[in-house]
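[09:14] KT: can someone run the structure on this one? pasting the chain below
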Amino acid sequence: MNYTDILKEQEKQFLSPFATSSFIAEDRAREDDYCTLRTQFARDKDRIIHSKAFRRLKHKTQVFISPKGDHYRTRLTHTIEVAQIARSLARALRLNEDLTEAIALGHDLGHTPFGHCGENALADLTNGYFQHNHQSLRVVEVLERNFKGLNLTGVVRDGILNHRTSTTPATLEGKVVLLSDKIAYINHDIDDCIRAGFLSEADLPKREIKTLGKSGTERINNMVLDIVKNSYMKNFVEPTAEFKAATDKLRGFMFNRIYLNPPNKSDEQKAAHIVKSLYEYYIQNLDKLPKYKQHLETLQNSKPEFKAFVSEFKVAPEQVVVCDYISGFTDEFAIEYYKRLFVPSRFNM
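[09:31] RB: done, structure tokens below
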């Protein structure tokens, strides 16, 4: 008996009737070798972890640009924290844990250097085309493995694309990641802001804190428990109305106090300037882009839905290529490359 046969039997016995089976028909872009040890979603998870884009997350901004303290979150630690919350939720709700973790680990692969600041800069330059969730999908479908992509299953790709609040994932596992992302970044960003001295516990909205919990640990635990109690063995994953309202207000507080009015505003402006300068340089020097012609070919062979998305924003092929390239930069690489291009070197006799 293959080990996967044992896993299939375990899923039948344990998973909710609303969970996504690991043994649905594979819908990868290319045929793949069969694995007797791992489910197809476990394989997707492993491919994401071993990708270059995943490794680069350790040097990309979460909230603070290039933080010097060892304890501030980066995009990688955020991703790991989202995956852990999502796994706990999926296990408690008897959903597919491998699928949930694969989506969580891949959801931010398309983030730019300097986080949302870099994302907004590229969006401004492309009529709103650049969005990190669409770029995350592009990373796994096309850019990784020398333009071959990671060849992931359809529901993992769907969850990666639809992890933002304004979207609707096709699976309950995707919804778990969407909620876990929000739970993670709200509470962990509060923690980082308090550590940096930009917020204090007394600043937090009192009614919402009373509902959700005083500490970050308590809030995360209560938010997860609320979702589990409200959604167990049901065909939806949602918090109660009380917790949703409190979470939305706490999120709104963070947007008004931190995200839209960053305490390090001058650094954000500098970061945006770096991204825009790099973009303009490459648009004018396309020959400096590695494998530019090969990269252009990927656009000609793109799926119809991606071509329609590009067309919607009236973006030229070279703009897509430049965004693909720059969005892969880490914070430090972007800073060093900017210096190399625009800052004069010292003259040595």
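[09:33] KT: thanks! The radius of gyration is 21 Å.
[09:34] RB: yep, looked fine to me
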